Every structure is written in structure tokens, then in C-alpha cells.
Amino acid sequence: MTRNFYLSLFICSLFLIQQATAQQKFVHPGILHGNAALDLIHQRVNGAKQPWLGGVEALRANPFSSSAYKVKGGFDSVAREKDFGLHAQEVNNDCIAAYYNALMWTATGKKAHAEKAVEILNAYSYKLKAIVRRDKELLAGLNGSHFLNAAEIIRYSYKGWDPKDIAQCEKMFLEVFYPVVKSYAPWANGNWGNACLKTAMAIGVFCNNREIFDDAVNYYLKGEGNASLPNYIYESGQCQESGRDQAHAQLGLGNLAECAEIAYNQGIDLYGALNNRLLKGFEYTAKYNLGGEVPFEVKSDVTKKYMHQTVSADNRGEFRPIYEMVYNHYQNRKGINAPYTKKVIDKIRPEGAGPRPYDQPGFGTLTFSLKKSE
């Protein structure tokens, strides 16, 4: 096929996606987890089925999934500068505890987990006024998505969250988080911008704001910064940060995958964009981190600040918990082979939380491995 053919196909797909987003109402819950998936998690865990039982056992063993977790926040202002700045570690702990307790509520039905998630969300909703300093986009993007996933699950599955508290939570996302992420950090490496993308998209869903959601979808497909799909993953599957290190390359890939899953839950197929470009990125990265050889193109990023000479061996073989969700979509939903992604899953299953700080959702064996049998 010619390049012009694929360009025409991409433009046509983009038009159809834009038409769909303009007409469709939001599905709830509908960020990373829809009702059917949440019900299936509960059924499988309570039916003692593997590999999901192993997944919930891994989640239960994580200290941030405990209903006895001691909340650190909220705080008036927070900052991430130099990894852990003004309350950054406490925010990361609290947001992941909110999300993991929401998952434990789903998996076990124990009310104490839902109450813990509500406690954390309320602590921030009524207190947090600003995300500040350098790296604020990363704090808002990486931590905001966890808060949002927790909030979406609890809002639509637990009757004990007061409507006025939900409204205050919406206010926090719109007035504190969204102003920080809405530009998608076009000056930075792509993982910054697509961390912002996933949180902006989630804000659009949780707050029923079509303009915010559509803007994030459009940027994913054709944004000018490193964060967009065509600028982060090249035709070969090489990523904008493949020459930087494998930790950041996987972080950026995982962020884009979360965007695709959110959109899929809203009836929009970003997974299939650019001839399944996301899968190419995962297969390239999985193959290299499993010890295989991959092609590498010396190419400047869109900012002209980063020009790597070779694929980086830094963090090679250190797998982030990003693979189950993508494999579930391509192989289980669509029947598209993803052999290297599958090899990673076989190596690390059950997928856990990954390295600290917890930038990705993790525990994909429990939450995204939804095929009836393996």
C-alpha cells in the first residue's frame, strides 16, 4: 500500500472518530473500567479462578490496597520537582491507595475499601488548590489519572459517596488538575504529554465534559508535540524515547494505551489508529526488552532537543505493568496476534504494581485479562 493510501485512510478514520465523539453520550463507569469488566473481576475473584485469583492476591498484598491505609493528605499545594518535592510522595501514596481500594471494593465487595477511597478523594477535593513548580505536568498527569479512576469506580458502584462531595471532586479536577494538563506539555519528552492526555481524557469522562474529552482525542491522533501517537511511535514501532531508556519508553507507551482504553470504553477505537500503531510500539519494545534485536532510526524528536544515536540498553528487561491491557485488546478482543507482548505477560504474570512511584495502574492480570480461559 502507498503512503498516500494510509494517509487518506487515517484522515477518513479521524473524521469518523470526530463524528462519533460529537454525537455520543458518555458511558459510566467508563474510564479504564466499564461495568462489564468490573462485574467480571468480581465474579472471577469470588469464583477462585486463575489467573485472576493470583491477580487479586497480588493486589491484596500491596499495602496501598488496605482499607486501614492512613491518608496523608490533602494539602493546599503540591509539587513533584526532582521526583519528590512538596508532598509529592504523599500524593502518590494517596492516589494509588484510592485507586487500589476502589479495585478491592470491586473485587471483594467489602464496604471498608469503598469508604477508604471516598475518604481520600474527599480529603483532596476540599483542600487542594494548586499543583505548582517544575514537573507539575507529570504530577497532575500521573497522579490525577489514579484519582480519576478511583472516583469513577466509586461514583457508579457505591451509594455512600455524597453528591455534594462528588460535585466538589469534579470542581477539583476541572479547576486544579485540568489547567495543568491541558497543553499536553509540547516542549517535553512524550511521556510528559501523554500522561497529561490520559488525565485530560479521564477528566472529560468523569466531568461529562465533551469539549475536554474531544480535545484530548484529537491531540492523541494529530497533536504537534511528542505525546501524540504518530510522534511518539514511529512506523517501525520505535518510540520517541527508545533511545533514552526503556523505563521512559514503556511509561510513554503505557500512557498511550490508557488513552486508547478510555476511548474504547466510550466507543472510539484509538487502538486501531494508524494501522494499529500502538501495537507496533508494544511489540518493538517487548521484543527488545526480552533480549531481541530491533531496528533503530536516528531521528530528532519534534522539539529538536532530543537526538538519540542507538536504542538504549538502560533499564532493559525491567518490565513495567503495561502489557496485559494491550494484549487483552488486540488478542482477546480483536484476534490480532501480539507474540512478543504475550511473551512478556508469560514472564511477569500475575502483573503487579511495578516500580515506585506507581505511574501506571498495574495489576492488569486482574483488571484487564478478561478472556474466559487461557
From TrEMBL:
Keyword Signal: yes
Protein name stated in the entry: Alginate lyase domain-containing protein
This protein's record includes keyword Lyase: yes
InterPro entries documented for this protein: Alginate_lyase_dom, Chondroitin_lyas
Residues annotated as signal peptide: 1-22
GO CC annotation: periplasmic space
The Alginate lyase domain, residue ranges: 81-290
UniProt keywords, alphabetically: Lyase, Signal
GO molecular function: lyase activity
Species of the source: Pedobacter frigiditerrae
